[in-house]
């Protein structure tokens, strides 16, 4: 489908449910897509960090994307992560994603070795030219050794290489400076890249990002409570900032589920992704809370704590645990 320019709204990075053997649970994934669409989301981002793309085999990536595209059936845009270390590998993923029906691609800068801005620019231009789908840059410094230079983003936005940016840097000040550099909140649509989409990946500061002029959010927690993020977005778009802030504060409290895994036993990624999947299982959306190896699974007490926090947030109606 043709993407709106700019793309906007709530675009969750879809979790990839796995069965007990670690294979993609296609039935659970299709139910998850329905869960998200029924909440009114505006797009889906398959094979991102929350989708555990870095842990999946190429075959598993293909299976997951195929299920998402089929389940969506053209109702909202599907962005496909084509994240990998080198341009050649990303091009391979990109070609497969286009063949499976993705509407747009999401790529990081190359990583493993450090790259110069000229190399990063060439990387994105080759992807855009070779595949022809709209391309979104994924700014995630913790994974690629550095933040995308704002001047480079503006250059690639202005020349049409990039259709947008997903900012998961956690640097809200830099995001605001980029917004200003592209024309600011009130004039960005007549600036150097009028159709360019800016999406925040910082799900705890969405109201602030929208007030500054961002177009939408890609929230991992949106798998668990997509309707909450849609309410936040709708309130902000209508200018009801107090209502948006109240919804944001509720979601900040719910986000505490990502901390339930003991730091002495597991990394923060294991805790967060395990919590999202545990929540989805408790909500009856997916069958199993398995995360990809070598991530450490949540223990029974941590899962019970997720349930208690879902109850406190009003997502589970009966007392849990």
Automatic annotation (TrEMBL):
<keyword id="KW-0456">Lyase</keyword>
<dbReference type="InterPro" id="IPR020624">
    <property type="entry name" value="Schiff_base-form_aldolases_CS"/>
</dbReference>
<dbReference type="InterPro" id="IPR020625">
    <property type="entry name" value="Schiff_base-form_aldolases_AS"/>
</dbReference>
<protein>
    <submittedName>
        <fullName>Dihydrodipicolinate synthase family protein</fullName>
    </submittedName>
</protein>
<comment type="similarity">
    <text>Belongs to the DapA family.</text>
</comment>
<dbReference type="InterPro" id="IPR013785">
    <property type="entry name" value="Aldolase_TIM"/>
</dbReference>
<dbReference type="InterPro" id="IPR002220">
    <property type="entry name" value="DapA-like"/>
</dbReference>
<keyword id="KW-0704">Schiff base</keyword>
<dbReference type="Pfam" id="PF00701">
    <property type="entry name" value="DHDPS"/>
</dbReference>
